[in-house]
Amino acid sequence: MTAPTTWRFNFYRMWTGQFLSGITSAIVQYALLWYLTIETKSATMISLATIIGFLPGIFISPFVGPIIDRHNKKWLMIGTDMLTALAALVLAVIGLIGHTFPLWMVFLAMFVRSLAQTFQYPTLQSITPTLVPNTMLTKISGQIGAFQSVQMIIAPAVAGVLFGMFDINYVILLDVVGAIFGSATMLITRLPERLKQDGPVHFWQDMLAGWTLLRKNKGIFQLTLIGALFTLIFMPAGAVYPLMTTQYFRGTVAMASIVEVVFSVGMMLGGAWIGWRGAGKDRGRALFGSILSVAVCGILSGILSRDFTGFILFNILNFFFGVGVPFFNAPFMAMIQERFAPEMLGRIIGLTSMLMNLAGPLGLVAAGPVADRFGVNMLFIIMGMGALVVGAGMLLLPAVRTIDRQPRPVPAEEVPKS
């Protein structure tokens, strides 16, 4: 068991490695997208790459959970890091030898990266409550969200600079460096002994056991469905952010980049606030406030004037939109970690991830036709109105409205507090 005075050092050391691994991985991901953009000049190919990124999360997430729950999480993290590094190394070597690589190899490498992340996300989230005191889970989720927002700010800019200065093959090798950092810190992280489940993995039975447990916790289950519905209505607007700038406001690519950075800065500050102050005693209010902020910002964004003043106001709304997002994501993940035993968390997070990932592409399918028919700004109005409906649903569902006042049937085991 982790000593009371060392849990912070143990945890943050692990996450430092994961942050370095994550930022190098994000840089390589953006560089590969730049490569596809330059080589193919095809929106279809970019869309195909995006869909490939979703596939493991949709079809594999439910089956990942049983593996995570029944195997050594530390070695799962190291193994998936090494798998990502191997895919990057093979791609880079082939590119260096042949001075180019076929597109199918780029897609395969992106699929392998997405597959590794499908394992890593629920594994990390199931490790966290074994290292962190229960009372700190919401703050830690906020801090993690802030770090991820920093990655979103830094990675595109760094990828653009490196892609312009160096051959793509050398940029890809950053993935190997990041994987080594992540694996090294994970290797020296002290994980407490947890209850191990005997017997082989039975995917369908184990997944059904996780689904049954998730359904029994009515508040979390209903909140997961709300989150999936929110993802469904958010994705169309989220996918057309660049078009909102370039078409609706008649702006430039540089202006579109500013919008993305402003949103990420908002998310970073929102996550940092939760990491510092938490989300309050009744986190249901934070969840509702997050949905309400999306509703207000979405509707107002869709009715702005199509001039530079409108663009400035769009950035202001976009900032508060970004601030509001962590007030849903961080409490939601903390509630899951608190209410389910660590040996079941892999399955629970795998199932919730599947529902969220399934909703995303469904929303993306609607984005193009709606934007072409009614205008890109209409997607923001639809998002805002949909968020109002989702918020009303939260208020009408007692299990969600009072989620922080309900008993926790399967609380995660506490670790000593420092």
UniProtKB/TrEMBL annotation:
InterPro entries in the cross-refs: MFS, MFS_dom, MFS_trans_sf
Major location category of this protein? membrane
Q: Does the keyword Transmembrane helix apply?
A: yes
Q: Per UniProt, which keywords does this protein have?
A: Cell membrane, Membrane, Transmembrane, Transmembrane helix, Transport
Q: Keyword Cell membrane, does the record have it?
A: yes
Major facilitator superfamily (MFS) profile domain sequence ranges: 10-401
Q: How does the protein associate with the membrane?
A: Multi-pass membrane protein
Tell me which Gene3D superfamilies the record gives. Answer: MFS general substrate transporter like domains
Name listed for the protein in its UniProt record: MFS transporter
Question: Which species?
Answer: Schleiferilactobacillus harbinensis
Organism ancestry: Bacteria, Bacillati, Bacillota, Bacilli, Lactobacillales
